[in-house]
Amino acid sequence: MNPAETRPLGRTGVRLTQMGFGGASIGELFVKVPEEDALACLRAAWDAGIRYFDTAPWYGRGLSELRTGAGLRERPRDEFVLSTKVGRWLRAPADPARFSTAPWIGGTHFEVVFDYSYDGIMRAYEQSQLRLGLTRYDLAIIHDLDLLYHAPDEKLATYFAQLAASGFRALAELKTAGLIRGIGAGINALGLIPRFLDLFEMDFFLVAMPYTLLHQEVLQNEFPRCVERGIGFVIGAVFSSGILATGATPGAHYNYAPAPPDILERVRSIEAVCARHGVPLAAAALQFPLGHPSVASVIPGASRPDQVQRNVRAFEHPIPSALWAELKAERLLRPDAPVPA
Predict the structure, then answer these.
(1) Contact partners, residue 293, CB within 8 Å, separation at least 6
(2) Eight-class DSSP state of 165
(3) Which of 22, 50, 221, 317 has the fewest CB atoms within 10 Å, measured from its CB?
(4) So where are the chain's domains?
């Protein structure tokens, strides 16, 4: 596959390079990342023809946006697509002496405020403009409106109600004014896509965990509802936060935590099939989501430029159709999962 080839994002009119760059790692998720390495990652992505970049205020508590802006500000603005998130804004901590940047290894010393109201969305938009150093970005993504951050369900329902009462109006106004070109939502778990579809006119979803080489349950009901409406997808966390890049090694990460035994065993089985066909596991993980015609882009992250280059090589690695057929025959892939031609 060619990372620089573009695909349409639903009916937004926006085209994304089918390989993008995910900005969580340069926000110092698992390791400290020197500034020069972060900027070198962005240069390596650009040199490979990648023109879609995703970041968020949450990534490194603003650090990823600062670095993404620094890496892109001098580039021709009409040559790249940029997405970031809304739902959080940043402020100085009330008690700096006791403040922790966790779960980020590094990042800046700002605390986050969840806010899905009209004013909160507008504040998040304006803060992102300033950190990026850009007067506009292209795609606004409603971030982390799920039970991982907002349990129990009553609390989550309160934030959905806040978004419905006023926050989504802010996004619609930004789109009408031409300040953004599409409205999306980040999805970390099953069951969230229908909740958004029942309340809002969505343009796309950034699906971070439920659609990977390990999981395809969204094909049952959730993706078909989106396809009916012309809604597109971006796929994040294609490596399931690590294990589909490293393989089933000791300490491998899955879903931002050490991988449990059942996931390690499943990955070993997938690795064995890949090995029989001479295909790196990372190549299969990167390319698999693009078999779905509504997927516009996959957005692996990197903390060093050589990791970007390694991802590009994996993306370009040829994969025989027999590999996908064997994964299905071994019940390691859903039989109805669309695969790359």
Answers:
(1) 338
(2) I
(3) 221
(4) 13-239+284-329
- DSSP tag of 259: P
Q: Which of 32, 47, 52, 85 is the catalytic position?
A: 85
With a CB cutoff of 8 Å and minimum separation 6, the contacts of 100 are: none
Question: Is residue 167 a contact partner of residue 116, using CB atoms and an 8 Å limit?
Answer: yes
Contact at 8 Å (CB) between 123 and 89?
yes
- Residue 85 annotated in active site: yes
* pLDDT confidence bin for 256, thresholds 50/70/90: confident
Largest alpha-carbon pair distance within the chain?
Answer: 58
Specify whether 175 is catalytic: no
In the numeric block, which tokens belong to residue 190?
């099953």
Residue 72 makes CB contacts below 8 A (sequence gap 6+) with 42, 53, 80, 82, 132, 134
Rounded CA separation 27/245 (Å): 19
- Is 64 within 8 Å of 341 (Cβ atoms)? no
**Catalytic entry in 59, 125, 211, 254:** 59
Active site residue 125: no
Active-site position among 37, 54, 138, 144: 54
Whole-angstrom CA distances from 217 to 2, 29, 67, 96, 116 are 27, 27, 35, 43, 28
Is residue 338 scored above 90 in pLDDT?
yes
- pLDDT tens-place string over residues 215-250: 999 999 999 999 999 999 999 999 998 999 999 999
pLDDT for 166-217, tens place per residue?
A: 999 999 999 999 999 999 999 999 999 999 999 999 999 999 989 999 999 9
Q: Smallest Cα–Cα separation from 296: which of 14, 18, 108, 3?
A: 18
Choose which CATH entry (3.90.550.10, 3.40.50.1820, 3.20.20.100, 3.10.20.30) describes domain 13-239+284-329: 3.20.20.100
